[in-house]
Please model this.
Amino acid sequence: MRSTGMATMAWRNLRRNRRRTALTVFGISFGVLLAVIFTGVGDSSYADMIDLAARMGTGHVTVQHSDYLDTPSVSKTVTGTTKISTLAARDENVKSVSTRITGQVLLATSAASYGAAMLAIDPQKENKDTFALFDSVTEGEMFESGADKGIILGAKLAENLDTKMGRKVVYTLTDKSGGIVSGLARVKGILRTGSQSVDAGLCILPIDTVRKTLGFDTDEATQVAVFLDDQRNSEAVAQRLKTTIGENAQVLTWDKSNPALAGFIGMKVSGTIIFEILILILIAAGIFNTIFVSVMERMREFGIMSAIGFSPAKIFSLVMWESLWIGIIGLISAATITAYPYYLMATKGIDVSKMTGGEQSIEVAGVAMSPIIYADIYPQSVLMICLAVFGATLLSGLYPAWRAGRVVPVESIKLV
Model:
């Protein structure tokens, strides 16, 4: 009998016990729904976290001094930043490149003094796609140029310093030679992100002013931040950039420059994978039970088929076709029942702000995230889920098909 005939027979066999088939298909559909939603939430959340962390400082790929990661210091700089930026910008996956100076600074007013992290930028070369804090300046405004004389403080930091808009702040740091240097700036803006670590410990300064204070060249900085169209291309871009710029600096992907965030995401991804494996096991168990029970109930039927000329291979093929049909119907049904819940998660999301005390953001590894959770699954993840479910369906049918193919006609025909 041709394979098309076996496929038709297998389809008819599934229709003989529609309730059992429907329950199996529902189990597949519900499992796929859970897997897609959980994976979609993970893909969306982790991508947003990585992009936001990149736009708050280091970029998706960072070019910096080879020793800066282990011992951060403004004395460990990268020279020729203009050339590096030009080379990086030529990569097809790179959207933009920014040069920055990062380090620690001591801020002092007439009332108090506090240590803080410093980020020096050129506002004329930055935008919302490269610097997430542009929209977080709730009072005042961003600098007009890299040579501005202002300073932007986190809201809690300004409160600790007992300072307000327009007041003077003295910032003190260590230059390249280890000497103590200071600068004077007026508060030009107040930053509110919702992240306690940022609002209480970050100040933003104009890059050219900081260069002058530190004695840097005009083409010198502590890092070059590279921003990509997709964070998943980070490793490939970093490898290409290493080849281009040679040994003049160290090129790091986001997970190397932000190990705390990488560790958090790695832990969450592992949890999601374990959850999906459990779902897959449950789906496989349900399919196996359906097919195995169906086979055991039809042993007499298989014996008669064998007696009239069906080979063990054909009987094996028949049961495997039943597994194949269950997988196909299950995936079609899964797509149907998953579409609307996924649409709601992708467009409206779930607001968990009440679970976090009404906060407008959630801080994860120093990154302030929105309390609204969305789903945005990668096509590769959808493909992997479908292949895994389909593979589990076929694997679940192997043993029942093998049992059916080994039927002994004389013994099985006696069964009632």
